[in-house]
User: What shape does this take?
Amino acid sequence: MKGVVLAGGRGTRLRPMTDVMNKHVLPVYDEPMIFYPVRTLIDNGISEILVISTPEHIGGYIQLLEEEFDADFSYKVQKSPEGIAHAVRLAEDFVDDRFAVVLGDNIVIDDLSASIERFEASDSDCMIFLKEVSDPSRYGVAEVAGDEVVDITEKPAEPETNNAVIGLYLYTDEVFDRIPDLNKSDRGELEITDLNESYLDDGRLTYSVLDGEWFDVGTPDGLLKASRFVAEDA
Ligand code: DAU
Assistant: This one.
């Protein structure tokens, strides 16, 4: 399985730092943020990795990642931040069959091998990962009934559940037939939640519950919490 790390976007919640630098080089304790999603892939046996970032910042990632990791990296530019699903579409030439997407501001510390194996053995085209949180309205949220996801909503004002949909997704290359059918949201982006909802509507979506640690470090609070966790764990 190949992997894709999305490190574009605007990083507005981490201004003013992100006015002059890309969010994913900001430190989580003593390492740049992007090391974590890259390590999530490598630690789970995925070493062919496409990194997608902005035209201004992609060069810095080549330097950072090639020096740190012994993996097979490719790089691609997302010219403008038109959404997570828009960025996923840029992986079309890189991907052949099943692949993982991880958001560059998500820290996922868990053994994902059982979930990856389950996805690979299934006839499902999309697997999302859920984690119970106390502040679900900041995230995509999934409602589960029995073994099935029955609803996914992006940042609902009044969430029905505490299940955040974390920034880690498994797809087949069939995803590239779906993304062109998405419409931009009110914030002008192709939303990952709309993409995942299309799988839900077609009965093609499965989920896994994350046992390990998860941090969205796209906000000052998230960055502080993750840095503390990493420092204490070091
Ligand atoms: O962290 C998990 C959440 O991530 C999910 O629960 C939400 O469903 C999902 O929409 C996303 O929400 P955010 O508001 O946190 O997404 P954000 O715009 O911060 O983008 C997350 C990462 O995706 C960011 O680190 C960079 C990358 N990205 C984002 C956009 C909009 C790109 O590479 N290109 C883009 O155009």
Observations:
- The chain is about 30% helix and 30% strand.
- The first strand starts at residue 2 and ends at 7.
- The CA atoms of residues 85 and 222 lie 23 Å apart.
- The two ends are 30 Å apart (CA to CA).
